[in-house]
Design a protein that fits this description.
With about 200 residues, the chain is mainly alpha-helical. Helix content is about 75%, strand content about 0%. Helix 1 packs across helix 4 and helix 4 packs parallel to helix 7. The chain is elongated.
Length: about 200
């Protein structure tokens, strides 16, 4: 339509993801979202929804984007679960090292403030964390770990993955983060070796 301002919806949501990721849900105002997206408040409401609606959309986009990367990393788990889990952690470490992205993880940051989130957003954050554990468990079972070991390592690796994001936000060096990952990979390698004997 003549005179109607057009905008790229995907670019606006991506900009909102970065804004929420950088400052968190509670500390992101509509003015912040307006500045990040280039849209005025009424355009945000009419095109992207209220703050809660937009945040849920951002969580979904973030979880889908990185979920695909984690799934690709874990795809070799049936033949080499240790390499698959290493590749899984590399997705996180590469994201942390990217200077174009905020520190931390949008899901981890959301999980840490669940008490102040609306029930629907809190449920979505919990679901995103649970999905990470499930994808790890599925991959480890494909790598022939016993059910109990697959579950234990999935919980542990998901917890380590979230802690990497929190530690990076606190300024932990890349070398220290890789050392944390190394301990987990060593433990997984030993457990896999023990299960074969």
């Amino acid at each position: 339509m003549a005179g109607k301002k057009q905008f790229d919806m995907d670019a606006a949501v991506d900009a909102a993801v970065i804004q929420f990721w950088r400052d968190g849900y509670a500390d992101t105002s509509l003015d912040d979202l307006s500045q990040a997206t280039g849209l005025n408040r009424s355009s945000i409401y009419s095109s992207l929804g209220a703050k809660d609606t937009l945040f849920l959309r951002c969580l979904e986009r973030y979880a889908a984007r990185y979920g695909e990367k984690y799934d690709a990393a874990l795809s070799c788990a049936a033949s080499d679960p240790v390499a698959a889990v290493r590749a899984f952690f590399d997705v996180t470490l590469d994201r942390i090292a990217d200077p174009e992205l905020p520190d931390g993880c949008l899901i981890a940051q959301s999980a840490m403030v669940i008490p102040v989130l609306s029930p629907s957003i809190a449920a979505h954050a919990r679901q995103a964390l649970g999905s990470q554990r499930l994808r790890l468990r599925t991959a480890l079972k494909a790598g022939r770990l016993a059910d109990e070991d697959a579950e234990a390592f999935a919980v542990h690796a998901a917890a380590v993955n979230q802690s990497l994001a929190v530690m990076s936000r606190a300024g932990t060096s890349p070398g220290q983060l890789r050392a944390v990952v190394g301990v987990t990979l060593d433990a997984l390698s030993q457990a896999r070796g023990a299960s074969r004997t």
